[in-house]
Amino acid sequence: MIVRAVKIRKIYGKKDPFEALKGVSLEVDEGEILAILGPSGCGKTTLLNCLSGLDTPTDGEIFVLGKNLNNMSEEEKTKFRAENMGFIFQFFNLIPVLTAVENVEIPLLISKKFPVNKIRKKAYEWLERLHIGHRAKAYPNEMSGGEQQRVAIARALINNPKIVWADEPTGALDTKNSEEIMNIILEMNRELGTTFVIVTHDPNVAQKAHRIIKMDSGLIISGQKSG
């Protein structure tokens, strides 16, 4: 097991509080592709943000790789994410003033796992691996959505993370590119054994995962029980 969440609640606001998560418990196995499926506003992105340590739950405990995120400072969580996690977002989150290869380099520059002279080489290798090497020197606004998402996936994987969190990774793409991106995720999971947790509203995307949990109104309603 790589992730375990126990009775996670998340409440926003004090004057007029909104309970986005209502006691959610779940487990994610190492090497699994888990899809969290549900409509907009059901709490799935809030859950993803809490599980990854980007947000802090109001109540409950989250363990990732055996570490209790509740016991970490923000600085410790940032370091833990850099060393163990990758992120893929709906709108790619590429830095517009950097080329594709420069965007891919960012996690290695932050983690300082490799000397600078090797980082560029590894970034090129990942772009080639995802069949986007010919666009290495292009800027984000010069690339299609599918190309940008391939760059984002290369950036997420270059640091060899144990787990990748994907928030609507195909949400901004057409059907053809959506299928290609999901096939890349499946391929990387098979080759590297990387765990993927994918938030989506698209049943076609979810069907490619090993397991689906469905959410509605801040609760898991099928696939795994809420606490």
TrEMBL record:
Write down the InterPro entries for this protein, in alphabetical order: AAA+_ATPase, ABC_transporter-like_ATP-bd, ABC_transporter-like_CS, MacB-like_ATP-bd, P-loop_NTPase
The residue ranges of the ABC transporter domain are 3-227
Give the keywords, sorted.
ATP-binding, Nucleotide-binding, Transport
Classify the source by domain of life: Bacteria
Give the similarity note. Answer: Belongs to the ABC transporter superfamily.
- Which Gene Ontology MF annotations are present? ATP binding; ATP hydrolysis activity; transmembrane transporter activity
One cellular component (GO) term of this entry: membrane protein complex
Note the Pfam families from the entry.
ABC_tran
Name of the molecule in the record: Putative ABC transport system ATP-binding protein
Q: Does the keyword DNA-binding apply?
A: no
